[in-house]
């Protein structure tokens, strides 16, 4: 097993790129710890956000994704205001195969994986892109997510007012504080629209399988067909 650790601290921006599957868990500490049991390599670097990072995952002859991350105001994504001082450094983890990464609870994550992504217990923001299955549980803020296979989302809040999420298979989608949204869904059963509250936010869910929308709010079907798909009641904590 290969392991690397680095001091991360609170609200650290961490980019994780793996060729296979990765599990990311939040923990009570200031260190980021990455480990892999494969022989495909592991690197951990501290970089300036002015640098360009490129994520590329290949399985066989197929490129699953090829993403170039240009310089962006990452300190704003981490919850900093324009006038607030913020670090211009990010931590970048790369694994040729798969592995596990433990990060401080308040970390802000961007994760790219050729296969599966599992994320648990993160109090910051998460963006995730997987070539296969994705499972995000006990995450505070979801920014972006796309999965080549099934997707399961259980987060507290959502960043942005107009967002889209896609999955190649079934999708289970739960955002706890989503109380005012215009919902559009396209899944294996067809297309339907609904509204919760005043419909301030716009969420579009696309899946190759069934979409299950989880909420404790009243869901109102919208014209022209007044059709609803699978609605599941959130389980009270």
Structural features, described:
It is a single chain. By secondary structure, this protein is mostly beta strands. It has two domains: 1-155, no CATH class; 160-237, no CATH class. The chain contains one helix and 21 strands. The strands form two sheets. The chain has a 19-stranded mixed beta sheet that branches. Strands 6-7 form a two-stranded antiparallel ribbon. A hairpin with a 2-residue loop joins strand 16 and strand 17. The radius of gyration is 18 Å and the shape is elongated. The termini are far apart.
In short:
This protein has 237 residues and is mainly beta.
The major pleated sheet works out as: 19 strands, mixed
Report low-confidence residues grouped into runs of 5 or more: 55-62, 69-86
Kindly estimate the percentage of residues that lie in beta strands according to DSSP: over 45%
Structural class: mainly beta
How many individual β-strands?
21
Spell the H/E element sequence: EEEEEEEHEEEEEEEEEEEEEE
Annotation field: number of helices: 1
């Amino acid at each position: 097993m290969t392991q690397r650790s680095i001091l991360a601290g609170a609200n650290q921006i961490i980019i994780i790129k793996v060729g296979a599957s990765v599990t990311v868990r939040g923990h009570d500490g200031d260190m980021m710890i990455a480990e892999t049991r494969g022989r495909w390599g592991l690197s951990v670097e501290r970089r300036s956000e002015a640098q360009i990072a490129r994520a590329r995952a290949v399985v066989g002859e197929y490129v699953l994704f090829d993403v170039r991350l240009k310089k962006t105001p990452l300190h704003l994504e981490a919850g900093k205001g324009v006038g607030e001082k913020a670090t211009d450094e990010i931590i970048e983890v790369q694994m040729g195969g798969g592995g596990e990464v433990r990060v401080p609870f308040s970390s802000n994550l961007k994760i790219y994986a050729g296969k599966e992504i599992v994320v648990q217990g993160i109090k910051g923001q998460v963006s995730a892109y997987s070539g296969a299955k994705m499972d995000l549980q006990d995450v505070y803020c979801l920014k972006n997510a796309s999965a080549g296979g099934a997707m399961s989302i259980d987060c507290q809040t959502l960043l942005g007012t107009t967002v889209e999420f896609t999955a190649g298979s079934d999708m289970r989608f739960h955002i706890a504080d989503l109380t005012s949204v215009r919902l559009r869904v396209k899944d294996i059963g067809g297309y339907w629209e609904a509204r919760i509250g005043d419909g301030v936010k716009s969420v579009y869910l696309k899946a190759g399988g069934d979409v299950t929308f989880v909420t404790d709010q009243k869901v109102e079907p919208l014209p022209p067909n007044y059709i609803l798909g699978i609605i599941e009641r959130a389980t009270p904590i």
